[in-house]
Design a protein that fits this description.
Blueprint lengths: L41 E4 L1 H7 L3 E3 L6 E4 L14 E5 L6 E9 L4 E10 L8 E6 L7 E5 L9 E8 L4 E8 L8 E10 L4 E4 L7 E2 L3 E9 L7 E6 L10 E7 L4 E7 L7 E4 L1 E6 L2 E6 L4 E4 L5 E7 L3 E3 L4 E8 L6 E6 L2 E3 L5 E4 L7 E7 L9 E3 L3 E2 L1 E3 L5 E7 L3 E3 L4 E8 L6 E6 L2 E3 L5 E4 L7 E8 L7 E4 L3 E2 L1 E3 L15 H12 L21 E3 L2 E3 L6
Parallel strand pairs: 13-21, 23-31, 33-41
Antiparallel strand pairs: 1-3, 2-5, 3-4, 4-11, 5-10, 6-9, 6-11, 7-8, 7-10, 12-14, 14-17, 15-16, 15-19, 18-21, 19-20, 22-24, 24-27, 25-26, 25-28, 28-29, 28-30, 32-34, 34-37, 35-36, 35-38, 38-39, 38-40, 42-43
Length: 538
């Protein structure tokens, strides 16, 4: 029947230095994705027929005589699952199998598969290659041993990718011979012979900036300049951008890496850690449990004063502490002028503060991942406002200038005097009047100084005595009116003579004022018991 021809290749049985394992899968490495009917075998399919029935696997042999087999007719059932494929030799049949992502040039890969020979045909070794063309073998990379007739045998091939490639190809060695025939099944990527297992990490939850130990175990040969590196995932457990957190230079197969978590770590509970190596480049397993990292926090405390720091003496004032990152059980220590006061509370109340007293509080935090355990608040300086000063002002009515003997009224107007002030009026410093806001008197002299003294108890335990403004009085004495002169005369003639003489003292005559002669001054004179109503002519 059929046998497979293969191209000679070089099998690489050890991992080369500076190699790394990449996550790769075959899209249909077990041939289960096909449209064939269970219970039937599809024999001697052309390349076109095979490709129409099988997904992600492409036949491109020179003859095209592929088989998709399900039953036990040809030396037994599939190695695993429901289907396997069979190829004739020497390149008459060949297939390419599509990968989930491209191989990376220069990196080391290990692939396993199963083969089986048939009792009726000559089996030859299978050869593996890589390609970016699903219809050709570009480069052969490894060759397995000859299949065992009637027995599925696992083959493991390790190679360095000579190029970036999306397809793995397979065919039998030998010359073009349809009588060479063998079976293959279940292609998959294997871990290399070198591997690293990241151990259990103790201490979660962790704080950003904190230290931790990462244990690991490894297998295989590592070069003398090898470094084991611990890497941290992001907060979601992804290693798309791993962060190196610790390094250990060693080629031993076990160790512990001392690590420091980044201070800028985002808080999260899905962190993972893995260990990788440099020579060869191996990516180890992740630790098996999610890790929690809390962000670093800095305790802070701010205080406020209610109703404020400008108060009157004796006013009750309450201070409120506002803590940030204080934890679940913060401790407060209040201080006035550096001396401890109050209790462990977020508030402090006092009515005994004095002017310029300085109030602060210290916070002790129990918050996880606090960068420091304590914090001091801002300071509040107390300003005691001076007490309200009583005052009294006096006014006078009708005026501070009066005629002698007139009555005058003084009125006191108090300010901030309290409910029961007392008054003492004074003239020239001598007490007068009574305890009243009004003082009346008609016994004021010119130059008298009037004041009042008010005694107030407003907001003070001792009396407060306040003097008023000063009012200086002016007293006017009215001029005396002239009285008519009464003259007793013996006879009228003498009276006339005397009158002429007396009235000459009141009048001055001149040529320019002769009209005054016609004027008369009426005086009532009593002359010998009679009244003379008119003055005589001059």
């Amino acid at each position: 029947m059929k046998k497979l021809i293969a191209i000679i290749g070089i099998i690489i049985v050890s991992i080369t230095s500076n190699s790394i394992v990449r996550s790769q899968t075959f899209l249909n490495g077990n041939f289960e994705k096909n449209t064939a009917i269970i219970g039937t075998d599809l024999i001697n399919l052309s390349n076109v027929d095979f490709n129409s029935k099988m997904e992600n696997t492409f036949a491109f042999g020179s003859y095209g005589d592929m088989d998709i087999i399900n039953t036990a007719t040809y030396n037994g059932l599939p190695q695993n699952g429901s289907w396997y494929v069979a190829l004739t030799g020497g390149g008459t049949d060949a297939i390419s199998m599509e990968l989930s992502s491209k191989l990376v040039s220069g990196k080391t890969y290990t692939i396993s598969f199963w083969d089986r020979g048939s009792s009726s045909y000559q089996p030859l070794p299978f050869q593996m290659g890589v390609s970016n063309d699903k219809r050709s073998i570009v480069t052969a990379v490894a060759t397995a041993e000859t299949p065992v007739v009637g027995v599925w045998t696992k083959r493991t091939l390790t190679f360095i990718a000579p190029m970036d490639a999306l397809y793995i190809t397979i065919q039998m060695t030998g010359v073009n011979n349809l009588q060479d025939w063998a079976h293959v099944d279940n292609f998959m990527f294997e871990n290399p012979s070198n591997f690293i297992t990241t151990g259990k990490i103790e201490g979660s939850p962790f704080c950003a900036c904190s230290s931790l130990e990462v244990p690991f175990q490894s297998k295989g040969a590592f070069l003398s300049d090898n470094q084991y590196i611990a890497q941290l995932s992001d907060e979601n457990g992804s290693f798309s951008k791993p962060v190196n957190i610790g390094v250990l230079k060693s080629n031993l197969n076990s160790g512990v890496i001392s690590c420091s978590l980044p201070c800028v770590s985002v808080a999260g509970s899905l962190y993972r850690i893995r260990v990788i190596s440099t020579t060869p480049e191996i990516i180890g397993t992740e630790n098996k449990m999610n890790l929690t990292i809390n962000s670093s926090v800095t305790p802070e405390v701010v205080i406020e004063a209610h109703p404020g720091n400008n108060i009157k003496e004796g006013t009750t004032i309450t201070f409120q502490a506002i803590a940030h990152n204080g934890g679940t059980k913060p401790i407060y220590q209040w201080m006035v002028n550096g001396e401890k006061v109050g209790i462990n509370s977020s508030t402090f109340t006092s009515s005994k503060l004095k002017n310029n007293d300085v109030v602060t509080v210290s916070l002790i935090s129990n918050a996880p991942c606090a960068t420091t355990s304590s914090a001091n608040s801002n300071s509040i300086s107390i300003n005691i406002e001076p007490p309200e000063q009583p005052n009294v002002v006096i006014e006078v009515s009708p005026s501070s200038t009066i005629q002698k003997g007139k009555n005058v009224t003084f009125r006191a107007t108090p300010y901030k005097s309290g409910s029961m002030p007392s008054y003492q009026w004074k003239i020239n410093g001598e007490n007068v009047g009574g305890n009243s806001v009004i003082f009346n008197t008609s016994n004021i002299k010119d130059g008298d100084v009037v004041t009042v003294v008010m005694t107030s108890y407003l907001g003070m335990s001792v009396p407060h005595v306040i003097g008023s403004n000063v009012i200086v009085m002016t007293v006017i004495v009215p001029e005396k009116k002239e009285k008519a002169e009464i003259v007793k005369i013996a006879n009228v003639k003498k009276a006339k003579f005397n009158l002429k003489r007396e009235f000459s003292n009141y009048f001055k005559f001149s040529s320019s004022n002769t009209s005054m002669r016609k004027k008369s001054l009426t005086k009532k004179l009593k002359i010998s018991g009679r009244k003379i109503k008119r003055c005589p002519r001059f």
